[in-house]
Amino acid sequence: MTILTKTYLLPVFTACLLLTAVSCKEDKTLPSCEGVTYEYEGVDGPEHWSELCVDYTDCGGKVQSPVDITGAVNDATLPNIPRTYAASATHIVNKGHTIQFNYDGGSTITVNGESYELLQFHTHTHSEHTVGGVSAPMEIHFVHKNAATGKLAVIGVFVEEGAQNAVLEHFVHHLPATLDAKYEAAETFSALDLMPADQSYFTYAGSLTTPPCSEIVTWIVMEHHIEASAAQIHDFEALEHENARPVQALEGRTIKHHKA
Length: 260
Ligand SMILES: [Zn+2]
Prior knowledge:
The protein is of the alpha+beta class.
């Protein structure tokens, strides 16, 4: 093995030197992701995320999110997701592309017999998942992590335009306007109050929807939406702008449907 490697390496290396960039382009090494930023349009947009730097290559994978929810298969064996949510104080941070609410520890869900702790939720305007090709004006992602495996379970909730949302109304006048700015308050609330009462959901294996697009997510997209007023949705959209990754090909994956 060692001899073979040495024998073949030299001619390849020489060819590269002779033909320079033309023949060696396929061997190009991506830069470090240190200081690299991604965007939602243009040369750093979603179509190019996988080429931006060495840790973003998963963005070009086959187990990516979001997806269009269509052709879901009913699965009578799926349960309501057991949720043990405690109240949390308010910790809002402007992450640049999204407004994130960090959640106090100790709130968990159970998925496939494994426990995942709620770390944070954040918003996308418009929604990232679509249903039959139709998007909602907003989607909230509740990010839960299994500390032992590092895997994630993310609950997606569609927000449709309608009545003013009483929980969001506590926050919309305090959304931090600049990158890394924070708003902290002792006032508590429960994530449960931002989820629909009906526990029907769609589930599939997918990824983070932002770089590095790691394929470690069990997605649980609630079938039923919650409502917020047009003004409330606008307050989020004005800060995070367009931050929905386009839907990705299913690549043979099955979306399962739980009817509560
Ligand atoms: Zn998200």
